[in-house]
Design goal:
Layout (H helix, E strand, L loop, with lengths): L3 E3 L27 E3 L17 H11 L1 H23 L18 E2 L6 E2 L10 H37 L1 H15 L3 H11 L4 H12 L1 H14 L3 H8 L4 H37 L11 H10 L6 H27 L7
Antiparallel strand pairs: 1-2, 3-4
Helix pairs in contact: 2-3, 2-11, 3-4, 3-6, 3-7, 3-9, 5-6, 7-9, 8-9, 9-10, 9-11, 10-11
Length: about 325
Amino acid sequence: MGLFSIKKKAPFEPAVEDLSAVYGADSHIDASEFETIGKDAENMESIVRPSVSFWKDAMSRVGRSKVAVVCLAILVLLILGAIFIPIFSPFTISQQDVTFIHQPPFSIDPSTGNMHIFGTDVLGRDIFVRIWYGARISLTVAAAVALIDCFLGVIYGGISGYFGGKLDNVMMRILEVISGIPYLMIVMLLMVVLERGLGAIILAYSLTGWTGMARLVRGQVMSLKEQEFLVAAQAMGAKPSRIIARHLVPNLLSVIIVNITLDIPSIIFTEAFLSMLGLGIAPPESSWGIMANEGIQFFQTYPTELVFPAVFICLTMLSFNLLGDQLRDAFDPKLRS
């Protein structure tokens, strides 16, 4: 059967407003109004839109988002600065000059001729290099805790959600008990036993921080385990460990990535808060929390000593939060167009 198209009227023919005047109830369309154009066998089954995978489509939407690109650029600059600036800086984080204290930004040290870009603190230490070393501490804590929480939460939540039943009830009750323990109490108890430092903070946060990820993964697994592809895998004799590792986790990867990016700001803030309370990094190590605690004491006379670490804390947390929001929108299948 061939394809047909309606012949176009001549350009000088007037348009008819009322179609009922031309085609009545009992009338039929004249065959002369049509012409045969034949079959288009080559393009009958062609795909108009190219096939795009889920990850490629999500990454393309992230790339088209100006907010996501700006946030990624800021985070990349922070990471590169935290790695290289303390290495190539003429100052060290513990180098003191008591004759050159509380200096404003862009002050030049007369003894060395080097510029203090962010000025100096109460002990004459360079604020600029301490800021970037603090970024190294905060980002290291955030990355380590996020990976540990992801690993523990995915395993615990995946097992609980997949098997369900009594095992799920027992595991959830244990999770509720762990979540009910105050985090600060764990930190203070660990500080009595362990030496203050990076490892103590990571361990303290990791003991309770994975519970949120476990709850999220459990809920997602319970909604996925009744899907057809999992039923087919079970019917083919796949073991539960293989189903969780090869089928469930890849389908949860987008949710896990988004949750990690939204958890990192909380981890950074917690590290800064503990350092301000004297429960975090021990001096002479530098962190944003320690610098903020020192800057509070001289805020009225030397406000920049508090403003610089506060700006870096806010900028890092804001970048991760906005990036997490953009990733959540990009990974949402309902928004695919």
